[in-house]
Structure formats: C-alpha cells, structure tokens
Amino acid sequence: MKKIILVSMLLTLVVACGPSKESQELQKKAKSAFGTLPDKMPGSEKDTPELVSLGEKLYFDNRLSVNDSQSCNSCHNVKDKKGGVDNLPTSPGTFGKSGDRNSPTVLNAGFHVAQFWDGRAATLADQAKGPILNPGEMAMPSEKAVIEKLSKTEYPELFAKAFPEEKEKLTYDNLAKAIAAFERTLKTSDRFDEWMNGNFKAITPAEEKGLATFIDVGCTGCHYGATLGGTSFRKLGERNPYETEDLGRFNVTKNESEKYFFKVPSLRNVMLTAPYFHDGKVSTIEDAVKKMAYHQLNKNLTDDEIKSI
Q1: Closest C-alpha to 258, from 266, 268, 269, 246
Q2: What is the spatial distance between Cα 132 and Cα 140, in angstroms, rounded to a whole number?
C-alpha cells in the first residue's frame, strides 16, 4: 500500500512539474513558424579544415584593405561573443567615411535567402567579394591588385593547401570561397532552440508570454523560419510609410514594385546587433518593435506588449 501511495505521489509530482497545456500549444506554433537551425549551413559539407582556416585568417586580415587598416571583422565583429556587427548606425570605410547602410550580422548568414540588405549577392562568396573592392569600404583598386598583394605574403602556401586540386590556387574567386567557408562556421544556438526541442525550462514564463505576443500580433508574417527572418524581401512601410530615400531592392532589380523592399533581418541574436533597420536609425529594440508594428502591421502596440515582445 505504501509503495502504491509513493508511486502515485511521484506521478503527481511529475505531472505538476511538466509543461502546461498552454506551453505545449505555444511550442507547436513555434515549431510550425520557426523550427530549429540545422546542424550545418548549406554548402559546408565540402568545406575542409584547411579551407576554413584560410578563410578565418583572411576574415581578420587588415591587408585586404588598401591601406592595411580594415578587415572583414572591422564591420562584422565576431570576436568576444559580439553579434557579427560593429554596433554603429553605418560603418566607416578604410578612409573614415561612413556608408549608407547598417552593417548586417554575419552570424547565421549562410541560412539567408541572399546577402546584403538588397539581396544583390546570391551567396556568401559573392558577398565577400564586394566590400574589398568597394571604394567606400576596403577600397582595393582591383581583383588583380588584391592577388598581387597577397602573393608577396605567406598566402600562396596557404591557398595551395586549401585548394590542392586547382591549377590556379591564389585567385580572387578562391579568396571569396575561403571567407565563405569560415562564415559557414558562424552558426549560433540558444535557449530558444532548447525550448523548442523539449526543454520547457529553457526560457522563462515571461519569455513564453513574449513569444505568444510576438505570434499573436503578427510578427511571424515576416520573421519566420529557423533564423526568424532572412528568408524574404518585404516593403519597409507596408502599411504606413517609413521615411527613407533608400530604394532598397529596386536598385538591384529596377522593378518598380520592389521600391523600398529590403531583406527581412533575422532576429537571431538581435539583442546584440543594435542599432536597427537598414539605416541604423533605431537605437533600441523597444523602438524597433514599436515601429515595425506600426509601419508593417498598422498596429499601435501597448507598452506592455512592446516590453513583452
């Protein structure tokens, strides 16, 4: 009899400590809207340790800029658990002049539909080529100049190890491939993934409430998928205009219907990547939530809703 009572008490305790029905339903919604990040980024299955090591060295090398003052990491800082950004509204180039757009994070970028705010680069490798030659960024005069500069360093041997089967090893295309391979290692994971995988204690009741509010308000209309964004282009100011002279994706496609369209940013690690939006003019996450609800959904959220999200 005592054993039966003890077993009954244990079962009661397990049930009492288990997730609530509301939490389980919320998890189902979250799995449907987001899912968890795959173990590896697309394309990484062919990346070798030598290729990744080369890409990492290139990523942090100031010699890729014309005056040896700037590396990829200067604008997309991944050191010391940074968010893959420089936390500036817009980034200064190698000569100190700031650009027109906020530097997006490189964390999990290989899962995105395309690169840059306007999606002008289809892949990580395509993206890696741009800033090095951009006069307002790293300002190298040409691909040839980059390769000539690197050929006088330790790089020929490193490229030979990373591209053993290629006739021409130290090329600009291979440089971009190597940087992309390193960036494919910049995958993150967090408590949200643990929660969706069944650990209901991984996030707090207040965070669960915020997730429910996020879904109920309609944020998942744009911020969906495993990266909570980065999977589509949407018009900024869909319901109420957002003041900007930047025409976004129109500059790439010349399609009138894509004026003011930008890639929806991922919300992974979003607390590390302020300031927000393509222009970097929104300094806090609270203001970003408020503005997005108004401009994209025509909703004026309460202070409690904003705080919760």
Answers
A1: 246
A2: 6
Active-site choice (137, 183, 258, 305) = 137
Percent of the chain with pLDDT over 90: 92
Convert 202-215 to b/e letters by CB count within 10 Å (16 or more is b).
ebeeeebebbbbbb
What's the token pair of residue 135?
């006069």
The pTM assigned to this predicted structure is: 0.92
Q: What tokens appear for 75 in the block? A: 């604008």
How far are the Cα atoms of 147, 157, 173, 180, 220 from residue 164, in angstroms, in the given order?
Answer: 18, 10, 15, 18, 45
How does 14-36 read in b/e, with b if 16+ C-beta sit within 10 Å?
eeeeebeeebeebbeebeebbee
**Has 165 been annotated as catalytic?**
no
Residue type, 40: K
Residue 116's Cα: distance from chain center in Å?
Answer: 10
